[in-house]
Amino acid sequence: MGIYCVVCTLILPVIMLITGRAMFNSPSDDTSMGMVGYGYKSKRSLASRASKSFADKYAGKVFAIYALVMLPLSLIASIILVANGIYFKGLSVIMVVQIICLCTVHIPVERALKKNFDENGERITIG
Predict the structure, then answer these.
(1) Which of 2, 45, 48, 75 has its CA 20 to 30 A from that of 26?
(2) In terms of Cα–Cα distance, which of 44, 40, 43, 31 is closest to 122?
């Protein structure tokens, strides 16, 4: 039962790592707001193909970084909790923290988009 609980806490970071690599290595060309395709979709990112590609690559990088931080932390925390006999309550807390991290990915991506692109999707040049 303990191994099952540990593996369950590692599912989200592994999925985030795989998704991050996919988004970084091959960004989506779909600039519509529809559900077809994959990638980072927001009003600012869909303004142009350049901003969409930038957002996908940046979001992929953020996903991968979050996942690489979450994997060892989740593994260590879940092993400690399972060793102490705290199965579902402790592991549920780990999963809630992981979901909160997943939900905060848009913050650094939107900041980077705002810094590098204007409202029309044109790259901001300095000078």
Answers:
(1) 75
(2) 44
Secondary structure (3-state) at 28: coil
**Mean pLDDT estimate for the chain:** 87
The rounded radius of gyration (Å) of the Cα atoms in the chain is: 18
* Separation CA 28–CA 40 (nearest Å): 9
Q: Does residue 127 have a pLDDT over 60?
A: no
Residue 32 is encoded by which pair of tokens? 């519509």
Q: How far is CA 64 from the centre of its chain?
A: 7
DSSP states along 43-101 = TTGGG-HHHHHHHHHHHHHHHHHHHHHHHHHHHHHHHHHHHTT--HHHHHHHHHHHHHH
Check residue 83 and give its pLDDT: 87
Residue owning tokens 């905060």: 104
User: b or e along 26-41 (b: 16 or more beta carbons within 10 Å of the residue's beta carbon)?
Assistant: ebbebbeeeeeeebbb
Would the pLDDT of 34 be above 60? Answer: no
Contact (CB, 8 A) for 109 and 59: yes
